[in-house]
Amino acid sequence: MAKQTEARKDFFTSATRMTLAQFKSFLENVLLKMDPRKAKPVIIWGAPGIAKSAILEQVFASSQKGLKTVILSQISALDSNGMPNIDENNSTVFTPTETFGRGKFNLFLDELNNAQGTTLACIQNLLSARQMGGDDYRDVYIVAACNPPSTNNLAQDLNQPTVSRCLNIVLDYTVDDFINYAMESGSIHPAITAFHKKTSGQYLQASWDYLAGSSYAVA
Q1: pLDDT band, residue 56 (cuts 50/70/90)
Q2: pTM (2 decimals)?
């Protein structure tokens, strides 16, 4: 795997490729310094198991509004809009749930493209209008994560309107990312680290290529 030294805009027409180190720097030095009302929701595209969640939790730990993680493959549309009820005027109203934090917390929407179709329809409104179930999410940062369908048979391609509403970042997991993680965690056997260094990370299975018939895939 060739070492990546800079972000390259060569995936989708508006996406930026980053290493994990670049992504962490982007969160700390760009996103969190923006007014959340002016910051687009972010979709990160990366192979499973490359520490996307760990980086987000680490970066947002110092944020005043923290980070609420929602695993979208495990919820339904009722968790999004709430339970329908009839009010005194015989109109249908929805009772909001606490699933998404009601605009009080920054959001990490994991497994976005594993969500049920009805749930995804609700999430699209959250990504575009920053509102859902009567709650306002304009004062928080929203980050979503997708795995490529080539790594998960439950994953699906997102439609273009959803993709175009967000800042798309494609994560390439490099051998340097792995070595940095191994050093920080202290839980990786030195022999494994040495193996990936010797093989230049070619077995990490997390470089990206375009495949016909799909918007994204891990090579």
Answers
A1: very high
A2: 0.78
Strands 15-18, 167-171: pairing kind: parallel
Residue with token string 């299975």: 205
CA-nearest of 187, 185, 184, 181 to 204 is 181
CB-CB neighbours of 6 under 10 Å: 8
Lateral strand order in the sheet of 15-18: 8-11, 15-18, 167-171, 42-45, 142-146, 106-110, 67-71
Phi, psi at 116, each rounded to 5°? -60, 155
Percent above pLDDT 90 for the chain: 26
**In sequence order, what are the residues at sequence separation of 6 or more whose Cβ sits closer than 8 angstroms to the Cβ of residue 118?**
76, 77
Alpha helices in the chain (DSSP H): 20-29, 52-60, 77-81, 117-129, 160-164, 175-185, 190-198
Q: Which tokens go with 127? A: 């990504």
- Asked if residue 7 has pLDDT above 50, the reply is no
Query: How would residue 10 be classed by pLDDT, with cut points 50, 70 and 90?
Result: very low
Write the DSSP string, 18-77: E-HHHHHHHHHHTGGGS-TTTPPPEEEE--TTSSHHHHHHHHHTTSTT-EEEEEGGG--H
